[in-house]
Write a structure and sequence with these properties.
The complex is a heterodimer. Chain A is α/β, with parallel strands linked by helices. Chain A contains ten helices and nine strands. By secondary structure, chain B is mostly beta strands. Chain B is built from three helices and nine strands, in the order E-H-E-E-H-E-E-E-E-E-E-H. Chain B has a five-stranded antiparallel beta sheet, with helices on one face. The chains are: A alpha/beta, B mainly beta.
Chain lengths: 307, 162
């Protein structure tokens, strides 16, 4: 088993073997992620963090991952703190940071930004989210969560719920789940359905996904409810937003007696009621933790350690 | 000729398209797409003589368009572009009334530097030093995918750029 990629830009670049490699490595790295063991594979190495958009979980878990592996971190956490305010291009900033760091992590508001950076620098690049595009490391940690909870991914029945149009995590995730033979349901209001390119890819890979606008329709059949946030700014009409938001809200009562887990990429606003948090259904905080061993596995796979 | 009414009938004038002496004949263009082909080639222009025939009968295609351009031989980058909207087009290079070169247009697997990504949020539409790149993911009808933002572009959006 090996890892074939030089950059982590889009889940489409991954083979199933690449994904399985990362999931297996992540499992082995869990004791280090939990601070039960020490590791120095990245000692003397530096990770360059270029975050043009705010992020809490992704940025902190990358920093944690690099530091748990004994490496260092440099970079900026918002565009205002970089030379972009002076008019510097992404290309120039990336070239400059790549001279200081052994790998780059890029989050940007424009789609394709990380791919572009990987074209202009010589060090490995990891996409930490590009506009409404891809967020491959989130997908890997989502897959890892399913693997850890169920002991498998193949054969699961997963419902992706909420904003499927703009939610980048569900785009990458649906593609990956298709590779693993997962049965999927897409639950969203009609105006926030999966984009045509995602449906095109799924059809191309012979993946059949059911589309519906009702959560009730899928509750009895699924193993995983993957909830995403419906954002106010997507709706011109506030009344419409409030109506739709209410229809896609999960609480503990509606889950009673069901055999499923609830996942969420976070941050959550009110699409999952806090009364789900401490039930066996709520797995989203555990999911957030798994971002650390998964990103550690990626860093180990991309950055060559000192002999 | 004398008609039954005793009038002399004029022979109807036939407008013939003459063969060209030097230049390019683009045949087998998808019917009604010849004006898009002209756009790709930066035509019409004042100095170049062009003949356009639309919806001509074709044994292979049912109907087709033909474009004849005098005194101009097409470059390969122009031929690639034609393939995007008329994948069956054939190119004949004419010198001194003789066809000296004949070829089909080929849609390559990658289209570089020709089209803009229609996604306004794509990095290629920002002020970055980047050349547009698309992968041809389907050939008939043509569907392209942006190398950067991964959005797909269908025929209508492709044609609107020419």
């Amino acid at each position: 088993m090996s890892f074939s990629l030089k950059n982590v830009i889009s889940i489409k670049d991954f083979s199933k073997e690449d994904i399985n490699f990362i999931l297996k490595q992540a499992k082995e790295l869990e004791p280090i992620a939990r601070s039960q063991e020490m590791c120095q594979t990245m000692a003397g190495k530096i990770l360059g963090m270029m975050f043009y958009e705010p992020s809490t979980r992704t940025r902190l878990s990358f920093e944690t991952s690099m530091k748990r592996l004994g490496g260092g971190v440099i970079g900026f956490a918002e565009a205002g703190a970089s030379s972009v305010t002076k008019g510097e291009t992404l290309s120039d900033t990336a070239r400059m940071v790549s001279e200081y760091a052994d790998a780059l992590v890029v989050r940007h508001n424009l789609e394709g930004a990380a791919r572009f950076v990987s074209d202009v620098v010589d060090v490995p690049v990891i996409n930490a989210g590009d506009g409404a595009g891809q967020h491959p490391t989130q997908t890997l940690l989502d897959l890892y969560t399913m693997q850890r909870v169920f002991g498998k991914i193949k054969g699961l029945n997963v419902a992706l719920i909420g904003d499927l149009k703009y939610g980048r995590t569900v785009h990458s995730l649906s593609y990956a789940l298709g590779m693993f033979g997962v049965k999927m349901s897409f639950v969203s209001p009609p105006e926030l359905r999966m984009p045509r390119e995602i449906m095109h890819d799924l059809r191309h890979n012979n993946v059949v996904a059911q589309e519906t606008d009702s959560i009730q329709e899928v509750l009895d059949d699924v193993d995983v409810l993957y909830i995403t946030r419906i954002q106010k700014e997507r709706f011109p009409d506030i009344e419409e937003y409030l109506r739709i938001k209410g229809a896609y809200r999960i609480n503990a009562t509606m889950l009673q007696g069901k055999d499923l887990i609830v996942m969420h990429p976070l941050p959550r606003v009110d699409e999952i009621s806090p009364d789900v948090d401490d039930t066996p259904y709520g797995k989203y905080f555990e999911q957030a933790f798994y971002g650390v061993p998964v990103r550690m596995a990626l860093l180990n796979a991309l950055i060559k350690p000192f002999e | 000729m004398i008609s039954s009414m005793g009038h002399i009938m004029k022979k109807p004038k036939e407008l013939k398209v003459k063969p060209i002496k030097n230049g390019t004949v683009i045949d087998h263009i998808t019917a009604n797409k010849s004006l898009n082909v002209l756009n790709i080639l930066g035509l019409p222009s004042e100095k170049i003589k062009v003949t356009v025939a639309m919806n001509m009968q074709s044994s292979h295609m049912g109907s087709k368009d033909i474009v004849k351009i005098e005194n101009r031989e097409l470059e390969s980058s122009e031929v690639d572009q034609i393939a995007l909207i008329a994948p069956k087009a054939t190119i004949n290079i004419v010198r001194d009334y003789e066809i000296v070169g004949k070829g089909k247009v080929h849609l390559l697997n990658e289209v570089k530097g020709l089209l803009d990504c229609p996604n306004p949020n794509c990095i290629t539409n920002a002020l970055e030093p980047v050349v547009n790149r698309f992968y041809v993911i389907e050939k008939e009808p043509v569907i392209l995918r942006c190398h950067y933002c991964e959005r797909i572009m269908e025929e209508e959006e492709i044609e609107s750029q020419f």
